[in-house]
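Aim 2 progress update. The chain analyzed this quarter is reproduced below.
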Amino acid sequence: MIRSKRRGFSFVEVMIAIGIIGIGLTPALLLQNMVLTRVSRMGSRLHRIFFAKQFIFTAREKRGEGVAEFYLEEQEPYPKTKLLYRSEPVDGEPMFDGLKGLYSERVVISWQDGAERRKDDLVTFGFEPIRERKKK
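Predicted structure tokens:
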């Protein structure tokens, strides 16, 4: 058996090991990049949904009681978002006959995501009983 007096790895062995490690880590790094991009997008989307929820409460305060239809629009600077609130009675829908005072609230959230325009809707229903005036 011939033994070399040199210790360690040769340059070729080191380069092969680095190549194997690189080939093994490349998919993991690509996957990590994709996951971070999606988490960032979902975080922005969740942020916009919180804007919409808060916007409903703000619009309700501005609308006041007894108003049948109400529209409100607002722009948020970060992340750049356009919010449109619409409240209207649900009269005329056969499914809701007999429920006087039921109204729908819709917030349309629109934004630009790169080259694509995106939009989400947040819809809630509310009920304000119609108060009859007492006759004197």
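The CA atoms of residues 17 and 105 lie 62 Å apart. The two ends are 119 Å apart (CA to CA). These observations will guide the mutagenesis experiments scheduled for the next reporting period.
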